[in-house]
Amino acid sequence: MTLAVQTKPMDNIKETELIELVKKAGNEILKIYNDPDFSKVVDFKADNSPLTLADKASHEVIEQGLKDLYPEIPIISEEGDQLNYETRKDFELFWLVDPLDGTKEFINRNGEFTVNVALINKKYPIAGFIYAPVLDTVYVGLQEEAYKIVKGQKSVLTVNGVNKKVAVRSKSHASPEEEGVLNKYQIQDSISVGSSLKFCMVAEGKADVYYRFGPTMEWDTAAGQAVLEAAGGTVMIETGPDRFGYNKENLLNTGFLCLGFK
User: Fold this and answer.
1) Shortest CA distance to 145 belongs to which of 23, 6, 13?
2) Reported pTM
3) What is the per-residue pLDDT across 159-216, written as a single tens digit (0 to 9) for each?
């Protein structure tokens, strides 16, 4: 059975190969990150967001790897050809990829960037793979199973289940709108981190709330949502309580709220 069979798309998740793929992409990023001649080469896209050689290198590795593993499944990647809605609107099963999430963190050299690969089925993520190359940490979410691998050591991820009043906030995209939401949940402490690692902090119980008001794209959030939901958390649109979904006509996300408790 292959993933082209829509009834049970989780039946043929090549877990080990996908973990190796995000790590391979991460290693390509590190080659550039650790080379002063290349790490400072930055271009800018039409929307003024930064683009590095590492974004491109990671994309090439992931795109080829996914095509080799699952030639029948389409890919939507931040750095790939952008498919118009008429082409992708009927996709039930597809990969959603951010080859380098946290490009600003890469440029700022704080190590808090990730490789994100998610499998979307009928508008929702059913599998997510996140690799933080500098931390040598992989986060995996497979519906009801979530875990991380740190330097080869595997451990289960579980949300706190109760609000311990800790929020995780964006290192590069903080907004004043956060204050009202954090006050609602009586947040007493916060940690700041870049990229999809914010989802992972909630998934492993280091934080309880993550609210994002500012703009993100679907590839920024899909893998993180898969990991967090598999660990028992919730990701909903900011107006709640609807679950956060994908493959909209406009791939720009609305605001969202992540909770590690009911």
Assistant:
1) 13
2) 0.92
3) 999 999 999 998 766 677 888 889 999 999 999 999 999 999 999 999 999 999 988 9
Residues 32 and 107 in one domain: yes
The 3-state DSSP composition of the chain as helix, strand, coil percent (nearest 5) reads: 30, 30, 40
State how many domains the chain has.
2
Pair (186, 143) in one structural domain: no
| pLDDT above 50 (res 129) | yes
Element (H, E) at 95: strand 93-101
Pairing mode of beta strands 75-77, 93-101: parallel
Q: What span, in angstroms and rounded, lies between the C-alpha atoms of 229 and 143?
A: 7
Indicate whether 75 and 172 sit together in one domain.
no
The four Cα atoms 209, 215, 217, 220 give a dihedral, to 10 degrees, of: -40
Are residues 18 and 139 located together in one domain of the fold? Answer: yes
